[in-house]
Amino acid sequence: MVDPNYDYAAEYGDYDQHTIGIVGCGEIVESAHLPAYADAGFSVAGVTDVDDERAQAVADEFDLEVFPDIETLADSVNVVDVAVPPMFQREIVETVVDAGCHVLCQKPLAMDFEDASAIRTAVEDAGVIAAVNQQMRWEKSIRAVKDLLGEGALGTPLRATLEVNIETDFSNWGWMEETDHLEVMFHSIHYLDALRYLFGEPAGVSSTMATAPGQASIGETRTLHVLTYGNDLRATIDVNHNNWADPYARFRFEGTDGAVRGSIGLFDYYPESGPDTFEYLERSRDKWESHEVPDAWFPDAFIGTMGSLLRGIETGDTPPTHLADNIETLRLANATYKSWNEGRTVDPATIESTHEPEL
Q: Which end of the chain is less congested by CB atoms within 10 angstroms, N or C?
């Protein structure tokens, strides 16, 4: 038996003695970060943003202080949640860790390895703790699969599929339309990180990517990846952001002794969350065990990333999405671009730099 309805507020609620400040007041902060932190009882002091009106609106909604700048915020808290586009993250992280703050970085950690390495060095030199907001590891269905794998309930893993076929208006994030690294770096990086969390490092990745006729965005909006793990496991990530007809998002994990299938409800209601469906079948049984999983990804999973950071500060435990680990997710993401550019299977371990897409 498996119950995917984890209580993250109870799991991480003892770490409310740390004071959080948030840099950035975009949609994701309003719809996920702040509701999650309120549910968990975390102590959020205030926010700051380059858009003063936006910062004030979010602060009013959640009864928070508006800090005039990052420096003032960092002097007033001991944990900073950075929720800005990655091209601005390095400078912000260097500023807040220099003030002695622990930090939750936004994903992707950086657009290139130089900035990612510099962020890691700054954190290590400051002697603080950092993690990356790859919160799909706490998406309840994904965590339930992790637990089943840990128990050996699926046997030898053979097949994993993540299919996301939705319609996304990237103009909601205007800066995204200007980047030539789009779908993988800002969406499928979640799925790549989740597969690393479940199965470890793949031996190879084969990728193909495309745009859609007439799209406003520069970068790829349709991607397909096959990850190979030794002789047994094959994992597929198939994502399209141009489905105007019948959007859906679903997952399936199969092994020699069990299988899991279900849907990701977030995409039925985005930016609000909807329930996942989750079903588990033991090979020795003839009936699927079914669960509905409310608030599976947004906002509940955001308790996990921040909560694990707060736990790390309090206990010395290393957060699961620590920087060295997340650089491996960045390496895998860049391996998909290299595979696409060169039309071949790539070993992610060989990636030592950022690979430019060739549209």
A: N
